[in-house]
Amino acid sequence: MNKKAAAPSNIYLIGPMGAGKSSVGRHLARMLKKRFLDCDREIEERTGARIAIIFELEGESGFRKRERALLEELANEDGLVLATGGGVVLDRANRELLSRRGFNIYLNAPLELLVSRTSRDRQRPLLQTQDRTARIKALAQERDPLYREVADMIVTSDKRSAKHVAREILKQLEAI
């Protein structure tokens, strides 16, 4: 885990899909009196298309280009809590940008919880597979070291409410 003297103005929530980045982020932003944005929702609003459609038309690489461009833009803002997409850490330039421009909180969650939280979601392109559990496990194994590489704080998102997890993060931020 990286140590920084003081948390920068921007807080980036990183972690796998289903970890609660958006829900926790909304509460945390409210508590810190910061602006909240969800990277995936922002891409959808700007393009007028769902993430699944972008994946279908442009592939994952097309989506990742859009994600990188948005992250570069948002990293220039101050006072932001940003829920990133689960795959944002796959790009080395994104990891460097996240590390330079914000305080990164890795929301880690047990595999069973990730599977449960995404079980009814038909909008996530990477989960359109027969064995969602195996896919989520494979994604976690690939991405966990990258999340840890940029994490300034790791918080377990479990069956507690998003508000409770946000309070825990706030408590840890205040102790820095």
Task: Tell me what you see in this structure.
With 176 residues, this protein is an alpha/beta fold. The protein has a single domain, classed as P-loop containing nucleotide triphosphate hydrolases (Rossmann fold), CATH 3.40.50.300. 54% of the residues lie in helices and 12% in strands. The chain is built from seven helices and five strands. The chain has a five-stranded parallel beta sheet, with helices on both faces. α1 packs across α7, α2 packs across α3 and α5 crosses α6. The longest helix is centred in the middle third of the chain and has 24 residues. The radius of gyration is 15 Å and the shape is globular. The two termini are 13 Å apart. The N terminus is likely disordered.
User: What's the domain count?
Assistant: 1
SS-based class: alpha/beta
Helix content: 40-55%
The largest pleated sheet is described as: 5 strands, parallel
Question: What's the CATH H-level homologous superfamily?
Answer: P-loop containing nucleotide triphosphate hydrolases
Give the helix/strand layout.
Elements lengths: L10 E4 L6 H12 L2 E4 H9 L3 H24 L5 E4 L8 H10 L1 E6 L2 H8 L13 H19 L2 E4 L5 H13 L2
Parallel strand pairs: 1-3, 1-4, 2-3, 4-5
Helix pairs in contact: 1-7, 2-3, 5-6
What keyword list fits this structure?
176 residues; five-stranded parallel sheet; 7 helices; 54% helix; disordered N terminus
